[in-house]
């Protein structure tokens, strides 16, 4: 039985096309369609319901020690109000999930995980923690809205003060009032665009949604669904669990080495990553030259032999190019000509550097 | 979502408009374009191809996925809609004006649904 987020009725009222996703009923798009929603985020603003994401509180004197054991990034020395991205590995160096760590205080952290991995993550983390640490799954008590796009700050300013809005990317301010509703305001997102993620109590989510829509009505804000969320992150070349990484693909193979601190004393998966050594594959961008769209799982072929596979592919609405990310051997590099086997046909493509899209500052 | 009255529909959501003289236009329904979402590419067979009802007419690639399209009647492809191939988004904005191919030597297919039956068919499925 699929769950509903606190915004389910709102989505239906706004004409959202509802689909099951990661155990939740969520809109894949509204009447506007994926392209218009994608373009709104690149040029104005879009509002997403991301209440399906999981939230786990980790508190206690040994909270940091445990988090540093669980995740590959180093969370030492974060300041209160800082966010850090990290993969979380299994013993073999594969990825259990990728997540965000929010530091509320020295002994008080919030971990935000993917909905699809939520149950697995909680069980995994519970089985690994030890010492003076408490883990509580507060997912059911937290709704999350993502306000993304260049007009996001202007929209927020209609509902709150300048001081309530975090300035630095990957920072947050807790206990703020947005339209009179208590929120955590986080300067994060999954679109490659400037924007904010707002965490609030489920009973306030629908009201917060309406207030944001109203505040953004003159600034081009529209509601956006999961479809645009996926094309936006793909155009910005951000990895998605289950595509660019999974239980067997390591963070080093998928190009997340920056978030793996091998210099840390220890973390789960470190020994396996050391033993595996330099990865034999890497993540690259593929741009199709022939007409067609490469999809997840399509083979990438270089000089007649199989070189890897597409992990995600789409037609990018902003760049107007059919692109994909691929995991391929190290001998395949930007500038190379390859073919992608799409539904039995060999389509000519070229390897390009990532990201496909980067916002101008 | 709309169903146009003077057309006949296949279970795979293509429509046929009989033009008389053994000629017909073929497209996809409003329901189909809505299900597919924003169309990025359309690939069609070429003029001159002789098709039997159920044969592949090509495919429609939307942002979300690719969908096969099937010829709803027997006939020979006499024209493809190049304007639509150049701007596939027309299929989203005007599905009944955006024919894919024109056929000649058409044999009418009695298994196709009229608009009333098709409307009931999509509301059940």
Classify the fold: give the CATH topology of the largest domain in chain A. Answer: Gyrase A, domain 2
When the domains of chain B are counted, the total is 1
CATH architecture of the largest domain in chain A: 2-Layer Sandwich
CATH superfamily of the largest domain in chain A: Probable tRNA modification gtpase trme, domain 1
- How would you describe the shape of chain A? globular
Order of helices and strands of chain A: EHEEHEEHEEEHEEHEEEHEHHEEEEEE
Instruction: Describe the strand arrangement of the main beta sheet of chain B, using strand numbers.
Output: 1-2-3-9-8-5
Main sheet: strands, sense, barrel of chain B = 6 strands, antiparallel
Describe the fold and architecture.
The complex is a heterodimer of chains A (361) and B (125). Chain A is 20% helix and 35% strand. Chain A contains eight helices and 20 strands. Chain A is of the alpha+beta class. Chain A has helices at 8-13, 34-43, 63-70, 118-128, 152-157, 202-215, 226-235, 270-276, and strands at 3-4, 17-21, 24-29, 45-49, 54-59, 82-89, 95-105, 108-113, 134-137, 143-148, 172-178, 181-186, 195-200, 221-223, 281-288, 299-302, 305-316, 321-329, 337-342, 345-352. Chain A has three domains: 3-51 and 142-235, Gyrase A, domain 2; 54-138, Aminomethyltransferase beta-barrel domains (Alpha-Beta Plaits, 2-Layer Sandwich), CATH 3.30.70; 280-352, Beta Barrel (Elongation Factor Tu (Ef-tu), domain 3). Chain A starts with a strand and ends in a 9-residue tail after the last strand. Chain A has a six-stranded mixed β-sheet with strand order 11-12-13-10-4-14. By secondary structure, chain B is α+β, with helices and mostly antiparallel strands. In chain B, the strands form two sheets. In chain B, strands 1-2-3-9-8-5 form a six-stranded antiparallel β-sheet. Helices cover 21% and strands 39% of the residues of chain B. Chain B has a single domain (8-124), classed as RNA polymerase II/Efflux pump adaptor protein, barrel-sandwich hybrid domain (OB fold (Dihydrolipoamide Acetyltransferase, E2P)). Chains A and B meet through loops of A and strand 4 of B.
